[in-house]
From TrEMBL, chains A, B:
Protein name in UniProt: Sphingomyelin phosphodiesterase 2
Domain Endonuclease/exonuclease/phosphatase: 28-272
InterPro entries, per database record: Endo/exonu/phosph_ase_sf, Endo/exonuclease/phosphatase, Sph/SMPD2-like
The enzyme's E.C. designation: 3.1.4.12
Alphabetized UniProt keyword annotations: Hydrolase, Lipid metabolism, Magnesium, Membrane, Metal-binding, Sphingolipid metabolism, Transmembrane, Transmembrane helix
One biological process term in Gene Ontology: sphingolipid metabolic process
Cell compartments where the protein resides: Membrane
GO cellular component: membrane
Enzyme class: hydrolase
Amino acid sequence: MDTDPPLQLRVFDLNCWAIRYLSKLRQERIGLIGDTLSQEGFDLALLQEVWSERDYCELKQKLTAPYPYSHYFKSGVIGSGLCVFSRYPILDTFLYQYSLNGYPYMLQHGDWFCGKAVGLLVIKICGIMCHVYVTHLHAEYCRDKDAYLPHRVVQAWELAQFIQHTSKGADVVLLGGDLNMHPGDVGIRLLRDWTGLRDSFADTERFEGCEDGCTLVPANCFTVKEELQPFPLGIRIDYILYKGLSHFVVKCDSLVTTTGTAPGKSIPYSDHEAVTATLCVKRREEAKASSGSAVEPGLVDVVNEARTEVRVGLHAAEHQRYSNGRMAILALLLLLLQAAMGLSSLVGWDSPQPFPKFSFSLLSLLATVVLLLSMVLYVFHTIEVRMLQGTEEQMRLALQALQDKLSSM
Amino acid sequence: MDTDPPLQLRVFDLNCWAIRYLSKLRQERIGLIGDTLSQEGFDLALLQEVWSERDYCELKQKLTAPYPYSHYFKSGVIGSGLCVFSRYPILDTFLYQYSLNGYPYMLQHGDWFCGKAVGLLVIKICGIMCHVYVTHLHAEYCRDKDAYLPHRVVQAWELAQFIQHTSKGADVVLLGGDLNMHPGDVGIRLLRDWTGLRDSFADTERFEGCEDGCTLVPANCFTVKEELQPFPLGIRIDYILYKGLSHFVVKCDSLVTTTGTAPGKSIPYSDHEAVTATLCVKRREEAKASSGSAVEPGLVDVVNEARTEVRVGLHAAEHQRYSNGRMAILALLLLLLQAAMGLSSLVGWDSPQPFPKFSFSLLSLLATVVLLLSMVLYVFHTIEVRMLQGTEEQMRLALQALQDKLSSM
């Protein structure tokens, strides 16, 4: 068995930035992406931000021959945006929606409406069981004052946990997606250390593309230059991560990113650069012990750091909940006061100078709207508080288990 | 190794019906449950509907000695109500929230606010890796016209998928909880056939308790007798299911339910009967092939039946979404009309008989509230439609994979 030739897997990953009516040159770019996928004949193409199912269907129609198997993960109001095209049969799929994903009232950001999630696909390639994960985490809109950091850390933790719990039967684990985290961020360290996934950029034998493997670069005509000002080379937020389990070992032979435009074209595929990894999967001579038994020494620190971020988020969420509760009570008091005034005027206890009816009605309109919105937001932030508390407790349990393991080593 | 003595596991399962201010004799019953758990010294106690964390803390404090390990799963607005007490260390936990769980506006039912979920606990017992699942599915309020059936079928499908995907590394799988499904319902058949889990009532060697293993019986003083009228013996909706994987085989030696009151007491633990299973876990001489390779012949029919229910739910959800969209448009039109009338009166184009200002304002208040609510509900039902479409698509893929497997057998 050890003489089986190694399996070569070519994996393509791209955040397509395909928002109907908003993304520039969407149709041309979707056409271009389809053409490239068709010509290149990758083994797997992991796409994010394909928000419109019509775009997915267009791609699917074009790619039936080179990629007979595909899947679109539905979730949220406008769909998860996640889809996968595969040369090999997809045996099973499973979707995990992150418990926290921004705020519905942040309409200008809109992440909440996408129902951000991680999709799992079970794909058997030449007898090797591959668990392929595709995801897209909450965006970072302001690095200095990142209100979404706790949510993203929770997402990274849930992603790590989901991968660990669902990959026990796999030979090879692959994760591709826009993680919206820089390589040194706490979330990505947590994900890598918890799961043992390797970063194709850090481990590749050959690399070609943007400096430091960046995937959001100033050279791309669609990127917002002001946002990239603190990072002259750009930032790396799109990843292909992998690991081999038990009898298999995976290496990254080469990694290629586009460099601001699609190869041979004048426009890029997207505002993100595409990442293509060529992985080599080899059967190991001796089965490796399950990764669950080895503990990275720095893991305790990373989980602690992540837990601190979750706690910060918890305080903010509790404060928001409190504010909304107070606002709801004030609006309710105002309505009750108005009701009392209305009733008193009905029974003839009119004050000498009655409140003008029109302003009175407008005020009650405002109070009702505020009451309704505050109540909905109170419920929303209560769910947020619960989930942050739950994650914090889970991390505490994980730390305890880690420390027990380390002390028994 | 085959000479290892078999492991005996005593598992207790109970829906505690512990809603603060609403459930009768809550504090007495929680005290009683704590006393029983303490005296009996089960290996695992899987509890549902412990809605108040104060009740959980009270139980935890009382049970520290016999059950040093415990976990409460937080989710939704009021918590998932799920908790577990264990004699053995809990190594890891993971929560999966069902994507569909009723409607927030059905306040009288309230399931939506609980964030119904399945909790996974990884527990190592005498070297045997046990994956313990505890869950509580959406209630059935009217069996003849069950508006929640599609949601419950989706929950059963997600539960089955979650168990299948997360139990690959387990030796023993245990599921306990209030599934809110009768033994012959499509959801429970789907769950059992998809996962290969065995029903402790159907397979037990000795049974003691209510006839047919019922767990909601007229003899219980807290049950609503009218609801049980079509079922004179009661109904069975609380289950302990199990299976052994690879090297292990699990049998149910005995199953006991309470019969309307707690043993030796005048009141019951809850409106549900408690279920206690004594399981025997034995090492198998030869490892069994992974259950993934065997296909139950009736599974295709069950998945088809479930898919039909999901489709029915999809039509209903699409209709709801359409109604809410239409209502939002009407409210918006009314508001625009009022704005135009208001503007026209401001610029002096007053009609000879102006609309009374007070009614005018009341009408705009009503239109604004309707617009807001309809918009929120439109978004909510759009998410519902997406999730039902996604599940339907997943089931289609599963059917295809099943048929491929069956044809290759």
